[in-house]
Every structure is written in C-alpha cells, then in structure tokens.
C-alpha cells in the first residue's frame, strides 16, 4: 500500500464524512503490518471465450455463450465422457468454483461430465433446469464427487432439448433489475441508479419507506456472484418488509429501508467465482473503496444520511457459505449499544429450531462491509450467511421470519 494514497484516502473519508449528518466515526483499528491489508486496486481478469463446443461424433453440443455461464474449455474423452475446465477470473481466489453451461444431444442419452477446477475443489452440487427459470438439485445418485474433491464428476441425462447445468440457480443482473421494477409498482417503493460498475452496468438500489426516513436499515447482497442462497433469503426478507403484514405497515412508518440487491453485477453476469470486473473481492474493499461498486455504495448511503439527517440503525450483508451462520461484530467492539444481533439471531432460531443460525464473532480489522458499518457509521451489522445447500423452502420461510423479527426489534428500540 502506497502510504500517500492511504493518507489521501483517509483525508477524503474525513472530508466526505464531515459533510454529512450522521456522526462519522472513522475509527478503523491500526493494522501494525500493512501487508495484512488486502490490496484492492484493480488487477487483470481473464474473461472466457464464449462459444459452442460441438462433438459431432457423439451428437452432443455444449455452450457457454450466455449470461453468468462458466466453462472455460471442454474436450471429449470417449464416447460417453466430456472433460471440462473451470477456471477462476484471476488468482488468488476464494474456493467457490462456479460453473454454468447448457448441453443437448441429437438423441436421448447419458453423458458423463468431469469438471477440472483450476485453483479450486468441488463445492456446488449441480442444479438442473429446462428453462433457466425452474431449477432442481441433481439426483445425488448421479453425482460421483464428494465435497472438496479436486474434480467434479457426474452423469447427465440429455436429449435434443437444452439442459441448463449450474452450480446454483442462475439469477443474473437482469433478473435483479426485473425484481426491482416489480417492487416499484408499490407506491412506497422507489428505485435509484446510484452508480456504474467497472463494465458500465447500472448499480441499482430500492428504497422502501412511508416515513420521513430518519431511521435507516441498509441491506446488501451479491458481492460474491455464486452466493445465490443468501440472495434468495434477502429477496424473501425484503418482500416481507414490503408486504401487507401489520408489522411491515407499522415498520415502514418508522423506518426507511435501503436495499442494494446486486452489488457486483459484472461478476454475476460474467460467471465469476468471487471477484468484480476489477479483479478484486469487493468485500475487502470497504476500507479503501478502490472499486466503483463499493465507492458508489458508500457515497449513496452517506448522501441518504445527509438528505434527511438520518441515522443508520442496522446493516445486513447477505452471503452464502457451507452452513447457516451469522458473522456478528464482537461484543466489546467500540462502545456500541450491542444487542440487536444476538436478539435477532435468537428470535429467528426460536422459530426455526431445525435450521438455526450459528452466531460467529468476526474480527474488527477485516476490510468487509460489516466493519465499515461499525467503524464509519458506528452501528452494528451482520454478515448473514446462508448454507449453499439449505432447502429453498426453508430459505423462503426463514427470510420472512427474519424480517418480521428484525422489524419488531428495531421498532421497539427506535419507535
Ligand atoms: Zn460471500
């Protein structure tokens, strides 16, 4: 890290911070060795060749020329096996090897697919779809790979109709924007474009409010492209806040909710494992804001604070990992009035005892969004992690329960 850049960055923070209503508490802990900080300046990204892979000898075709696809290379091994390479956008990278492709055959047949993960190990159980909209997990009897195996190996039953095969459901930026538009049919929901990504995609937010907006709840999702389960739980959560329950109607009179459903549209649409088009993990860029996505997000929130002299009361960043858990700010961090996160998690777990969240205290040095909430806005925030394989109906139900629980907690505290 160039010290001059660091200092000028800090001065910029202070000058922006001073201009806004919320008391800005820029209090990032000292990091003794700046090597421990992740450099979030842009790095080169390798994009895929979009193409159709044809295997006329066995009458099979495969393609990656669609949004969110990932299949870098594919060769025929024998009459019934294809071997593919799944390569990350750059390296080093978190172990989340995303893949997505379409496959068909002249005649009905079984085909074996081996996926070789460069810099990765098998993580996602294949999900299948006939239309790209309705998805089901592969029959586990057809999957010959365990978690953490160096390759993925499975059998597909294919025919002339296109079969979509993907690590999780494909929900690209277009579907997020569609969802935003559908919500704005309600008079109290507005959409905003607050910036552009590296590749020029619109960064969109929605605001939900029937109040003067002096209390803010901030929600975000899809910093990490493959993290569909967190995204789906966020959708259920937001739809509950926008819904017709008595609690939601009362909450909207007290709170304005700002939601950025897709922080990393470039990564999502390019089928990235983790990073933005600038080649960095956006959830390590909340200290230096080198990427346009995080920079614009921060500016948007600070401007919202200034507009109505508002206070952010809580933040949730929706993600996915292997199991259901909450990363929560440690109890003794700063002199905050702690208590929302544990009350929140206990309320959800009480209603969903079979699918509880594990509370995991996180460090306060990490350059992630919840530490930005903590150090700059002086509020609690959580990283809300939903398991990769959590049942989709549980996700829908729990998103609803979580939203009702949080609305109740926040209303009681800030009525
Ligand atoms: Zn994540």
Secondary-structure content class = alpha/beta
Task: Note the gap between the termini.
Answer: 44 Å
Helix content: 25-40%
CATH architecture of the largest domain: 3-Layer(aba) Sandwich
Which ligands accompany this protein?
zinc ion
Q: Kindly provide the name of the CATH class of the largest domain.
A: Alpha Beta
Q: How many distinct helices?
A: 9
Mean pLDDT: 91
Work out the number of β strands: 18
Basic shape: globular
* Residue share in β-strands: 25-35%
Tell me the radius of gyration. Answer: 22 Å
Report a brief summary of the structure:
28% of the residues lie in helices and 26% in strands. The chain has 9 helices and 18 strands. It starts with a helix and ends with a helix.
List its salient traits.
415 residues, alpha/beta, Aminopeptidase, Immunoglobulin-like, 2 domains, eight-stranded mixed sheet, six-stranded antiparallel sheet, 26% strand, globular, disordered N terminus, binds zinc ion
Plain-language structure description:
β7 and β8 form a beta hairpin. It contains 9 helices and 18 strands. The chain is globular. The strands form 3 sheets. Strands 11-12-14-13-15-18-16-17 form an 8-stranded mixed beta sheet, with helices on both faces. Strands 1-2-5-10-7-8 form a 6-stranded antiparallel beta sheet, with no helix packed on it. The protein has a 4-stranded mixed beta sheet with strand order 3-4-6-9, with no helix packed on it. It folds into 2 domains: 277 residues, Zn peptidases (Aminopeptidase, 3-Layer(aba) Sandwich); 115 residues, Immunoglobulin-like. It has 415 residues and is of the alpha/beta class. The longest helix has 23 residues. α3 packs across α9. Bound molecules: zinc ion. The site of zinc ion has 3 residues, from loops. Zinc ion binds next to loops.
């Amino acid at each position: 890290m160039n010290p001059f850049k660091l200092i000028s960055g800090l001065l910029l923070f202070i000058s922006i911070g001073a201009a806004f209503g919320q008391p800005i508490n820029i209090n990032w802990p000292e990091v003794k060795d700046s090597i421990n900080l992740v450099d979030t300046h842009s790095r080169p990204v390798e994009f895929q060749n979009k193409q159709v892979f044809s295997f006329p000898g066995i009458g099979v075709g495969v393609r990656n020329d669609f949004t969110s696809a990932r299949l870098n290379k594919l060769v025929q091994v024998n009459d019934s096996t294809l071997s593919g390479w799944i390569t990350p956008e750059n390296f080093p990278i978190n172990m989340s090897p995303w893949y997505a492709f379409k496959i068909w055959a002249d005649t009905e047949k079984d085909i074996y697919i081996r996926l070789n993960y460069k810099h990765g190990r098998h993580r996602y159980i294949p999900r299948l779809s006939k239309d790209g909209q309705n998805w089901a997990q592969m029959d586990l009897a057809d999957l010959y790979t365990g978690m953490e195996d160096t390759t993925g190996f499975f059998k597909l039953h294919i025919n002339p109709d296109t079969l979509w095969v993907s690590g999780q459901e494909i929900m690209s930026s277009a579907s997020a924007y569609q969802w935003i538009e559908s919500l704005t049919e309600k008079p109290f929901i507005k959409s905003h474009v607050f910036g552009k990504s590296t590749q020029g995609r619109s960064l969109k937010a929605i605001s939900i409010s029937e109040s003067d907006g002096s209390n803010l709840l901030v929600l975000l999702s899809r910093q990490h492209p493959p993290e569909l389960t967190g995204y789906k739980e966020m959708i259920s959560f937001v739809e509950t806040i926008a819904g017709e329950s008595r609690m939601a109607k009362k909450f909207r009179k007290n709170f304005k909710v700002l939601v950025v459903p897709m922080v990393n549209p470039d990564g999502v649409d390019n089928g990235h494992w983790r990073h933005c088009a600038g080649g960095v993990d956006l959830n390590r860029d909340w200290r230096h804001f080198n990427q346009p996505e995080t920079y614009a997000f921060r500016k948007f929130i600070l401007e919202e604070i200034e507009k109505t002299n508002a206070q952010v009361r809580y933040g949730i960043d929706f993600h996915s990992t292997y199991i259901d858990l909450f990363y929560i700010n440690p109890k003794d961090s700063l002199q905050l009035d702690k208590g929302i996160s544990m009350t929140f998690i206990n309320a959800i777990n009480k209603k969903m005892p079979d699918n509880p969240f594990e509370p995991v205290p996180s460090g306060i040095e990490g350059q992630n969004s919840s530490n930005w909430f903590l150090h700059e806005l002086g509020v609690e925030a959580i990283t809300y992690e939903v398991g990769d394989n959590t049942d989709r109906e549980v996700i829908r139900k729990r998103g609803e329960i979580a939203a009702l629980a949080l609305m109740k907690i926040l209303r009681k505290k800030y009525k």
